[in-house]
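Weekly modeling sync, notes
Attendees: S.R. (lead), two postdocs, one rotation student

Agenda item 3: backlog of single-chain predictions. S.R. asked that every request posted to the team notebook include the full sequence so nobody has to chase files. The rotation student volunteered to paste the first one in as an example of the format we agreed on. Action items at the bottom.

Example entry:
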Amino acid sequence: MSVKKKQTQTKEKKRLFDRNTRRLIRSMKPIRGWLTLSAMLCAVLIGCAVAAPQILGDLIDRLYADTKSGSDQIVAHLLPGLGVLLALYALNAVVTYGNSYLLNTVVTRFYTAGLRVRLSEKLGKLPVSYMDKTPFGDVIDRMMDDVGSMSSIVYNLIEVLMTGFLQMLVIAVFLFFEDWHLALVVVVLSPLSVFLSGKLASLSEKYWHKHFNLGGELFALAEESFTNYPVTKAFNRENAMKEKYAKLNRTHQQNGIAANFLSAIVQPAIVFVDALAYIVIALVGGWLITKHGVPIGTVVTVILFARQMSTPLERIAFGLGESQQVKAASKRVFDLLDLPEEPDAAGEAPKPVKGHVEFDKVCFSYDPEKPLIRNLTMDVQPGQKIAIVGPTGAGKTTIVNLLMRFYDIQSGEIRIDGRNTAEMSRSEARKLFAMVLQETWLFKGTVAENVAYGCPDATREQIVEACESAYCDRFIRALPDGYDTVISEDSTNISSGQKQLLTIARALLADRSLLILDEATSNVDTRTELLLQKAMDRLMGGRTSFVIAHRLSTIVNADTILVIRDGQIVEQGKHRDLLARRGFYYELFTSQYRI
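Predicted structure, as returned to the notebook:
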């Protein structure tokens, strides 16, 4: 790679990170009121930091003068100043606690909660294709760890950067009022600390970026491993998965160590420079006392001011080191927030819905270079049961995705009761359909809650009625707590067939005009399949239904069977007619029995 190209890439990265920094600051707009309050508290702390050294310096001068003159009123002279000093330190402690509580408990909570809400809303507006391509673990990592890291920017901006720089500026002014010789020593050495901290912090940036990206990959790999745990065990792939995880984890660890080392070394570097400053100030101060008669209190005040200046320097150093971590995390969060949202129309679905569905020269492909569905045309009358069959990869499930507007077609039209679905909002289009899929999904909750997922306002009587119609009321009542039995997170306390019956009850309760059944009986035994078939027949009664099936014996009574091959309808008709033609459907049907 040429030097010029490297320089261009470096400038581009810097530009992106600078833009992220500006966005980080803008993202705190909802909590600006709390930040203003925190800034006011920080101003009080700066006042305490400036006043205390001056009072202590005056007390030392008074003590020196009284001791030299032999006064017996030393304690009386010191008590008022000590009282004020004690009150200042008490005020400093109370305000410090209040500001820390405000930043860590109130502001940070609102900030992180707001970001996670924005991310959640964004995910709801992204196309389904994004979730198909992105590991769930990586999305969760961005919402949890990356947003958690970004919350530290609130603390850094107020407590570290703003307060630190302001405190240094105020102290520098008061230093010159005390003694310009000593002030120059402090002011000359301070920029060296800032320069060192900035240099070391910038070196850690690239390591933090890699560290967070690898963290997302680790999260995704762990989620994948535990989600598919039985498969991993069945094929004895535990050691292979461990090795894969260990390799990725080592790289993640190495980048983390490098990033943490470079961030952590900033503060010791500041402490080292501060120690040199104390030595120089003490030596110069001693020389000024002996040669130029500078008051001892003035030197003590300057030393205390130098200490007050080193504290914000250490905070700034810590903030600069942590800011690289925040930048890396924020880039991943903002990348997600910047993803293009799927366009949506504002139209409503037809009411009442009859269920007339038309595909008019529909074309679609997941990859523009690999056409899948080409000029698909079909006319489904209200109440018809349409079976869609074909080999794996022919485009059967894709038709379902297009009906539900999980994906948008490239050309043509899909119409429901004469209205183009592209002109309806996605939510309106999806309200027309109930779905029963091959992969049953139940969440951790009671049986009743799972059945009522598509109709949360349903009464217990309506839930029971739907379960009776789906032939699952009997096994539900046999469960320990009946309809109040809690289904485990992985749904292992009920069988696959029982889960499928519950999803059918869910679809019945939703009572939608159109129905999609995608391989709904593929994972159950023959006896349960008969129950499922009876439940599905009841579910399909009076509804326009699209049934995708590999077991062709389950769709012999369909009104129309569409045979899909390479994204196109190659045959259509009733079961007997298709068998009589001895075409592709005949081959599919007879091959199942030969097997």
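Discussion: group reviewed the output briefly. Residues 53 and 305 are 6 Å apart (CA to CA).
Action items: rotation student to repeat for the remaining queue; S.R. to check formatting next week.
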